[in-house]
Amino acid sequence: MSNDAVVKRDNMNWLELEAPRYTSYPSAHHFAAQTHEGHYRQWLENIGHHKAVSVYIHIPFCRELCWFCGCHTKITRRYKPIYDYIQAMFQEIKMLQHFIKGKGTLVNIYFGGGSPNLLEDSDLRSILTNVSSIFKIVTLRESSIELDPRTTSPEKIALYSSLGFNRVSIGVQDFDPKVQLAINRFQPYSLVEKVVKNLREAGIDQINCDLIYGLPHQNLENFRHTLEKTISLNPSRIAIFSYAHIPHIKKHQRMIDTTSLPSPIEKLSLYLLAHEFLQDNGYIAIGIDHFAKPSDPLTTAFKNHTLKRNFQGYVSDDTEVLIGMGSSAISHFPEGYVQNSQNMPEYRDLVGNNRLPTIRGWQMSKDDQLQKTVIDELLCFMGVDLEEISQRFAVDPSYFKKELDSLQSLESLGIAKIKGYVVEVVGQYRMTARLVASVFDKYHRTMAGRYSKVV
After folding, report:
1. Which residues make beta-bridge pairs with 206?
2. What is the DSSP letter of 283?
3. How far apart are CA 193 and CA 191, in angstroms?
4. Which of 258, 262, 281, 351 could anchor a disulfide with 266, C-beta 3.0 to 4.6 Å?
5. Nearest-angstrom CA–CA distance, 203 and 197
6. Distances (CA, A) of 230 to 190, 297, 359
7. Which residues of 329-338 are buried (b: 16+ CB within 10 A; e: fewer)?
8. Is the pTM of this model over 0.90?
9. 374-383 pLDDT, tens per residue?
């Protein structure tokens, strides 16, 4: 079936509906100050001696402002603000070391931003050394870093290889010059191609490319060209993220001409094009927005039913503990979530006063764990067996009666399929898994207008 045939056949009012992205449950919008430093300290001390742990390092700085950006980052042309931030992070790491007391095994480390490749070589080395010193054993499966091709050099790539980085994520967004001009991010294909070539020459061949659909001036023709150029780089993973236009939250997005944005139906067509094109070219559809080579660990995790979703998106990381370091970073434990202050001066003041910089979080109840499991299954595998979940959590399947009744409207639109206690998301509507999952979310309706649109 062609994209046009899919787009035209149904009532499309659901395109305007909002739902959380479910990189956590509940959404970070619901985190509250009642979960605070004391809980974080206790959860750190609860880490078992042989517990596998992942670490996320947030570097919230960029050289230039991309007008589409929804990340927590600051623009700087000087290194001094980055240096000062890293010194504060060293204080945070020292406190974490005190509470963890050498327990746990560090198995994955992720550098995100912002643009972590702005770090000077000595600071990157120091961060890795300090983080490794927290844990009893360091046995890294994956060490990854996000790269901005415009500020990446062959020398930096050689350093990443020497330090053991084995995966990188490259921000591509779109290759069309008109689109790039409209979002204030100009990076020609030749530049990205050179970075990819340098990575492979340095022995780093696990390469992710991140694209965005729904940007100004995108259409089926030029987005197809972007997809063609992207697969010519032969990345192991491709993510196609939906652009969320939220100028009331991210004021710099006012620089984008809203008249040049695709309509909801045009945006859906872009998604369907990418979904069909990437699968036709050998990539496996993972979740709502990831595509991976058959040999990629993400595909293996998907096939083994061990795929996870967290603040890095879809991951093959099976650890139950993720410790986030730096301003705005979120940590996840079996007991719940905590988030560091997004305000950089406050973050520095807290660690400067020997306090963990968490300012809010969430303690998970048994119901939260159950609902999170259902939502994770839907987001990762496009379906869930509610009877099996009921047995796992020792509840009667009738627990889900209200949700199953609510799903009838989505089934009538052709978005969901219901057979007994099995709920599935219709294949061509994978992006609406968020909408199906929101039926099982008892919190999201209390914050209308705070989430991005489904498409």
Report:
1. 167
2. P
3. 5
4. 262
5. 10
6. 12, 20, 40
7. bbbbbebbbb
8. yes
9. 999 999 999 9
